[in-house]
Structure formats: structure tokens, C-alpha cells
Specification:
- The protein has 204 residues and is an alpha+beta fold.
- It has one domain (11-202): Chorismate lyase (3-Layer(aba) Sandwich).
- Helices cover 21% and strands 31% of the residues.
- The protein is built from 6 helices and 7 strands.
- Strands 1, 2, 3, 4, 5, 6 and 7 form a 7-stranded antiparallel sheet that branches.
- Strand 6 and strand 7 form a beta hairpin.
Length: 204
């Protein structure tokens, strides 16, 4: 078998169906979460936190350009966060907004701080959600390096590490916003959707 070229590793094979990435059942349960992922994480833990890593100008990744209407990788506003449940990082969030978008398109983006982006996207009637796409993120893809840096040197990642991710384009007025969520192994320690629903019912 020929080794994968470095250039090809910098792009993920995004698929329109979760089954195409062959994720284990518990991971697929998280990948296919409907509605707000933030709301589900809150319901699955005693303490939920958004830890902002940075929010700044950057160049979008090679496999993001077309999704946000750019002919090639170009300048964007980039936001990266870790979503933590009970002190453990469970999701790495990566969001890009083309610099051509205005404050009228995304009025709250620049002032999110450590608030969840999902808390604004799912409750704004002007926001339109696109189709979810799914991928397996391997060593060589830029997001793997960013996850490694976010988790620190003791994260236990190795060259054969494989993470599952999903992404979605949101539209508001004339603006586009692409959210990518990389699910970390610790998310499997949280309850499944059925378990969370039962827990909520029992506490009413």
C-alpha cells in the first residue's frame, strides 16, 4: 500500500452521512446529535464550561474554503474553543467566518468570550442551518495539531490517533459561518442520548 501524501492528509474526506465514517455506536450517537450540542453536554454533566483558546484573524484550512464560498484558502475570522464537562475536555470547536461578513451578519460573534456559540445559533430565528458533514481526522490534518496543542503534551495522542468530527455551515443574512466539532475520547464517558433523556425525565 502506498503511503498517503502529506498534501492529501491536510484535507479530510467530508461525507454527508454519519455512517460513511464508520464510527463506533457510542461515538455515532454523539456525532448525530440533533439540535444544540451544547445543550446536550450541559444535560450530561454537573459542570459545563467553554474554554476559549483564541479568536483572531487567520487563513482558513484547505478543506474549508469551498464550504464558505472561497475559491482558495483565504482570510477569515477564526475562533477555537474546548468544551469541557466536569473539568474534562470533550469537544474541540473550530469556527471560521469569512472576513467579508459584517457585524450585521453575525452581531454577537466578536463578543462571545467564553460563551457557547451554539447558545446564539440555535435561538436566533434568522440563522439557517445547513447539512451536517462528517469526517475522520487523522495525523497530518491541521486540526490534529491544534487539538494536540490545546490538550497539552500529556494528552496521550500518537501518530495513529483517529478522531471523529462533524461540521456545518450556518447562514445569517448574507453571512456564512462554518463550525467544526472534533469529538474527543472523553465524550464517550458521558451518557448516551437515551440515557440523558431518561435522566431528565426522572428529575422532573
Amino acid at each position: 500500500m502506498k503511503p498517503a501524501r502529506a498534501g492529501s492528509l491536510r484535507q479530510a474526506a467530508w461525507q454527508p452521512h454519519a455512517g460513511a465514517v464508520r464510527a463506533p455506536a457510542r461515538m455515532r450517537d454523539w456525532l448525530t446529535t440533533e439540535g444544540s450540542l451544547t445543550a446536550r453536554l450541559v444535560a450530561s454533566s454537573e459542570a459545563f464550561r467553554v474554554r476559549r483558546l483564541h479568536q483572531r484573524g487567520a487563513t482558513c484550512l484547505a478543506d474549508e474554503a469551498r464550504a464558505i464560498g472561497l475559491p482558495r484558502p483565504g482570510r477569515v475570522w477564526e475562533r477555537e474553543v474546548l468544551l469541557e464537562c466536569d473539568g474534562k475536555p470533550v469537544v474541540f470547536g473550530h469556527t471560521v467566518v469569512p472576513t467579508g461578513c459584517t457585524a450585521a451578519d453575525w452581531p454577537l460573534f466578536s463578543a462571545l468570550g467564553e460563551r457557547s456559540l451554539g447558545s446564539t445559533l440555535f435561538y436566533d430565528p434568522l440563522v439557517r442551518r445547513g447539512q451536517l458533514e462528517y469526517a475522520r481526522i487523522r495525523a497530518g490534518h491541521p486540526l490534529m495539531g491544534r487539538v494536540r496543542a490545546a490538550l497539552g503534551g500529556a494528552c496521550g495522542m500518537h501518530d495513529e490517533a483517529l478522531y471523529y468530527a462533524r461540521r456545518c455551515v450556518y447562514r445569517r443574512r448574507q453571512g456564512l459561518l462554518l463550525v467544526t466539532e472534533v469529538f474527543l475520547p472523553a465524550v464517550l464517558g458521558l451518557g448516551t442520548l437515551q440515557e440523558n433523556t431518561t435522566k431528565e425525565y426522572e428529575t422532573r
